[in-house]
Design goal:
Blueprint lengths: L4 E6 L3 E7 L5 E8 L6 H15 L8 E5 L2 E2 L6 E3 L12 H9 L3 E5 H12 L8 E6 L3 E7 L2 E2 L37 H12 L5 H9 L3 H25 L3 E5 L3 H15 L9 E3 L6 H11 L4
Parallel strand pairs: 1-4, 4-7, 8-11, 11-12
Antiparallel strand pairs: 1-2, 2-3, 5-6, 8-9, 9-10
Helix pairs in contact: 1-2, 3-8, 4-5, 4-6, 5-6, 6-7
Length: 299
């Protein structure tokens, strides 16, 4: 019997299935756009189709899933999700995929899964206590304690996006409120801040590219976002006392220079040795972490 497992990454724009061996090596992948606007049934059907394509090469054990949204750790049901996956709130992901795949399914939040992957075979593999922040279109976080993800009472532990930060009072967070870290330090935040200053609406990726090319306004927006992120992380280190802080996600590279400077300047002396590092698994992190969950359900 094969001891390989399948890990699923269900995001707002793409869904990925990965065949992962016991050492955390990705052996094969399947990928498709997430049919988010078609509703939860279409999203689940797509995920099941990708996973089923890899299951003949896997063992008979569970499938792991990392998905956008807050996941009830007891049931694998989505407690809350943003409009990136319309109608996703309330979806019994574990139950529905288990029915489609005819095997057990274990589900966690995508950033929690990414943290599991990084602590297994990524940049946090030598650390048992890690704070991971994922900076992409939005902003997510996860806390790993003694090698296990802290889910909290409702599955939402690590939601750094909603920390209040100065300078974001007029910027709207993905939760609908104003003044939160995600409204500044995310792809959406970069786009909103740039539009406020220039009246030009661009993607966060384009703002980051313009900043890298030396455009003053874009550089100022990115610098402000990175500094806000770094200061917030310094405060969280004092609260959580991790061994390592990891920054993942598509916008991480743009924000890390300013974030590192602010982090070092604001970090209390007692935690001066706690490093801030880029994550190591890239786009594989969620699927690899989901596979880890399938292998070790108490991770």
């Amino acid at each position: 019997m094969s001891d390989r497992v399948v890990g699923l990454d269900i995001g707002g724009t793409k869904t990925v299935a990965a065949l992962v061996d016991p050492a955390g090596v990705v052996l094969d992948r399947r990928r498709a756009p997430t049919p988010a606007r078609s509703g939860p049934t279409a999203v689940l059907d797509t995920a099941a189709r990708l996973a089923a394509d890899l299951l003949p090469a896997a063992g008979a054990g569970p499938v792991g899933v990392g998905t956008a949204g807050t996941v009830d750790p007891a049931t694998g049901t989505i407690r809350y999700a943003t409009d990136s996956l319309p109608g996703w709130t309330g979806t019994p992901v574990a139950e529905e995929l288990a029915h489609r795949l005819d095997r057990p399914v274990r589900v966690t939040n995508d950033v929690h899964a990414a943290a599991l992957g990084e602590c297994w075979v990524g940049a946090g593999r030598d650390s048992t206590d890690v704070l991971l922040v994922a900076v992409g279109t939005g902003l997510g976080g996860a806390v790993v304690r003694d090698g296990r993800v802290e889910t909290g009472a409702r599955g939402g532990a690590g939601a750094v996006a909603h920390l209040p930060v100065p300078g974001a009072e007029r910027l709207r967070c993905g939760c609908g409120r104003y003044g939160h870290l995600e409204a500044v330090a995310s792809g959406t935040g970069l786009a909103a801040a740039y539009a406020e200053e220039t009246g030009e609406r661009l993607s966060g990726r384009t703002v980051a590219e313009r900043a890298a090319a030396g455009e003053p306004t874009a550089a100022r927006v990115v610098e402000r976002a990175g500094s806000a992120l770094g200061r917030a992380l310094a405060g969280l280190v004092a609260l959580l006392d991790p061994v390592t802080v990891l920054v993942a996600g598509g916008a991480a590279g743009a924000l890390l220079p300013a974030a590192s400077t602010a982090y070092t300047a604001d970090l209390p002396a007692a935690w001066a040795h706690v490093p801030l590092r880029p994550a190591g698994l890239g786009e594989d992190a969620v699927a690899v972490g989901a596979a880890r969950l399938a292998i070790h359900p108490r991770a």
